């Protein structure tokens, strides 16, 4: 026998409708607590110079090369009263006298990708005398893929490593980072090819890169990998 009670107080054998007056018996309220929607992922940090969203984990803006690790821009003044300064934390105790120094961190043969830079220069032996000299320029290899080539506004191509050489393709070469931090070069179908330490790169084939390697491309361009 059901223990249901209709709104008029009748005991009913049927849990849905009263067996005496036929009135519908409301079902008991659900005891399942409401679910809390998951918190939304925070929006990407915009570049303070050009407003481009920051690539997760990248140190430099992929458009204007702003350094996100530098001092942040001054914050807007707050309308409320200033908060009291937090008490300084206690300084850690000095290490015991005679303690053995910590072992040095391991150094990888290719150096950390975040410390790798590529220096763009011109080979005087191949440079046209009519072309004015230009100072060397260095670019960080802080992204997973760093495109080397000529800027092309009509095609909206803005390489991470721009090269002003008429014989360099707009999409000439990529310098990429593997998950272990090592780097490799990849000719992506350039018109005039690329030399790595004097040997030609095969289009679409990864070529390992290390500190001190030299890439020659275009009419006079030389790229050298450095750790900084």
From TrEMBL:
Residues 71-89 have a biased composition (Low complexity). Residues 30-47, 90-103 have a biased composition (Pro residues). Gene3D superfamilies: 2.60.200.20. Pfam families: FHA. Residues 146-201 form the FHA domain. Residues 28-49, 71-103 are annotated as: Disordered. CDD domains: FHA (cd00060). This is FHA domain-containing protein. It comes from Lichenibacterium minor.
